[in-house]
From TrEMBL:
<protein>
    <submittedName>
        <fullName>ArsR family transcriptional regulator</fullName>
    </submittedName>
</protein>
<dbReference type="Pfam" id="PF12840">
    <property type="entry name" value="HTH_20"/>
</dbReference>
<dbReference type="InterPro" id="IPR001845">
    <property type="entry name" value="HTH_ArsR_DNA-bd_dom"/>
</dbReference>
<dbReference type="GO" id="GO:0003700">
    <property type="term" value="F:DNA-binding transcription factor activity"/>
</dbReference>
<feature type="domain" description="HTH arsR-type">
    <location>
        <begin position="1"/>
        <end position="93"/>
    </location>
</feature>
<dbReference type="InterPro" id="IPR051081">
    <property type="entry name" value="HTH_MetalResp_TranReg"/>
</dbReference>
<keyword id="KW-0238">DNA-binding</keyword>
<keyword id="KW-0805">Transcription regulation</keyword>
<dbReference type="InterPro" id="IPR036388">
    <property type="entry name" value="WH-like_DNA-bd_sf"/>
</dbReference>
<keyword id="KW-0804">Transcription</keyword>
<dbReference type="InterPro" id="IPR036390">
    <property type="entry name" value="WH_DNA-bd_sf"/>
</dbReference>
<dbReference type="GO" id="GO:0003677">
    <property type="term" value="F:DNA binding"/>
</dbReference>
Amino acid sequence: MTEAIDDELWSAVGDPTRRRILDLLLAGGGGTATTLSDRLPVTRQAVAKHLGVLDRVGLVHGTPSGRERRYDVDEAQLARAVAQLTSVGATWDARLDRIKRISEAIQRRRQG
């Protein structure tokens, strides 16, 4: 993925409503804007807009289902997002560990 796509991806999953939609889609094996809005404190129209954002970044794919679209999670794209998040987490863990070691060294010098 390119950096621009990553920015869009993280912007998309940064929204708590969209994360909840992903959770519901994963738990329920897919759904429509109507079925999802029944389980969320937002309107069907708001859910449809959120699904559009998730679709644009490739986390979900919609297929026609009667008068609506049925959305399913793209598990490969979700796995890539999780892998990136894990990598970012590991990088920050290493940075924070380094800061801790520097702080401890400063403390030892002040005490000794």
